Amino acid sequence: MTGPGVPTVPPATHNYAQSWTYSNLEDTVGMVRAEYDFLPAWTAYVSGGAHHSNEHGDYSSPNYNADMGTTAYRLGVPRKSDALAAEAGVRGHFATGPVTHQIAAGAAYTHIEDRSAYDFSGTYPTSLYDTAQVPRPAAVITAGDFADPPVTARTMMKSVAVSDTLGFLNDRVLFTIGARHQQIHQNGYSSATSALTDSYDDSVTTPIFGLVVKPWQNVAFYANRSEALAKGETAPADAVNVGQTLAPYRTKQVEFGVKYDTTRMGASFAAYQIEKPTAYTDADTRIFSTNGNQRHRGLEASVYGEPYRGVRLIAGASLIKAEQLDTNNGGATDGNRPVGVPAFLFNLGAEYDVPMLTGLTLTARYVHTGKQYLDAANTLSISSWNRFDLGARYATSVAGHDTTLRASVLNVTNKAYWASTMGGYLAQGTPRTLLLSVTSDF
């Protein structure tokens, strides 16, 4: 989306997609894990896995401009991704006098290779509300071999961590101390020429701290601090540097709270702070890049329980104070809210076991999300929204196997709303949708 103003939400019953758009996604995952108890209180473990993803699609997202109308273009994408991961470690416990120790040490390795090609068509006029179908437009820009997409990114992530959780006063006070070393090496390549376009190699050693205090049997106070190194984000299709991978970035998180838990009910309350870089597509230059940092300070509360036999409730709320820091042009957007971060979230869920039919449970859920800004300057925003879902599940036995049948309806009122925004994109909320599933234990 570009230009001033936010478009009115199309009716939930209207589909503004072109008939030739499609997306085929295929994922294949394999995992294996082994554990060996080599001493009464010590266990060694090793695990590994592989993930192959294959995507083919023709996409066309409308681009709204209040001054120039709505246009769109076709984007064709074949994309393949292969990931290999391995992990090994040891854990155990022992005591030194009145102090207990829970030791954990491990190492992890992940390698990801992404392959993709793409083609773009020219733009064509369209509408969010009275969409005319157009023939599939031909490509004007092509990069890469669609039959054998070239490598566009390789990422290697390694980490080693060790920690000790010390227990005092019969484990009513638990203090965790540890350290983690992470390394990320990532290369980006051009889809058109396969030339190396960017390369990053970063590593960091960070401390791990945690404290849990249990003054009473059902109450626990906790606090923790952690840091992490994360893979850099990739420029989206609407950016002029599409496909470019940004440098790895560091995050910091501090959290403290309290939990109360019994067999019939529980509650929790927490306060936290998260710091991380901000990345988005600039509205003027259309370059996707990092611009300063963002800090999230929030309060979270939840309560759950069974006030009456067969009736279960769960509710949660979050207050988020998020702001941009150290932004470009002398802090031009310092103090503004980051893109796509609401100030308030609330969820309420309920379940009812129907007494007349054993195994049948009715479910309901209410979701509320607060206003979100579309741009770093906070001049454009989407309204808060509410959604109601209903469902049912039936647990029974089929041929001696425990089987559960589920049915749910999302957005029962078929309300039209903008659900979220990120990087200049608007995502429309799911229209009234029926979901059916069957699970069985063998």
TrEMBL record:
InterPro entries: Beta-barrel_TonB, Beta-barrel_TonB_sf, TonB-dep_rcpt-like, TonB_sidphr_rcpt. It is found in: Cell outer membrane. Signal peptide: none annotated. Residues 14-412 form the TonB-dependent receptor-like beta-barrel domain. Gene3D superfamilies: TonB-dependent receptor, beta-barrel domain. It is a multi-pass membrane protein. Coiled coil: none annotated. One of its GO terms (biological process) is siderophore transport. GO terms for cellular component: cell outer membrane. One of its GO terms (molecular function) is siderophore uptake transmembrane transporter activity. Keywords: Cell outer membrane, Membrane, Receptor, TonB box, Transmembrane, Transmembrane beta strand, Transport. The keyword Nucleotidyltransferase does not apply. Its main location: membrane. NCBIfam families: TonB-siderophor. Belongs to the TonB-dependent receptor family. PANTHER family: FCUA PROTEIN, FERRICHROME IRON RECEPTOR-RELATED. This is TonB-denpendent receptor.
